[in-house]
Amino acid sequence: MKKTTSTKTSSPLRIYCDIFGHNYEMTKKVTSHVKEYTCKCCKRQLTTNGNGKLTELTPKYKEINAILEQIYTRRMMRLKKKTLSSSIY
Question: Mean per-residue pLDDT for 3-7?
């Protein structure tokens, strides 16, 4: 016999999402391919994984996204400097 545990919150907004589906909006653009999404109703957070599919935003994925964002911004700054210096000549 299965044990029933109530891990999900049963707020009216959660019930709305269960019936009609989530209403996700992009909250953070980590790179051009990796983004973070949040449901407007129940505040559920998702991110894209390595395969491009949406997965739950766990602390592990938050850390991965933060490091990925740092690498991406450094690379974009380096490319921007390179194009500026090459355009002078």
Answer: 43
Distances (CA, A) of 23 to 39, 49, 57: 5, 19, 16
pLDDT of residue 61: 95
Cα–Cα separations (whole angstroms), residue 29 to 36, 62, 69, 77: 6, 13, 9, 16
Lowest mean pLDDT among 16-20, 35-39, 41-45, 85-89: 85-89
Is residue 7 scored above 50 in pLDDT? Answer: no
Q: What is the value of pTM for the model shown? A: 0.74
Distance from C-alpha of 71 to C-alpha of 89, rounded to nearest angstrom: 28
Nearest CA-CA partner of 25 in 34, 36, 12, 17: 36
- Structure token pair of residue 13: 């907004």
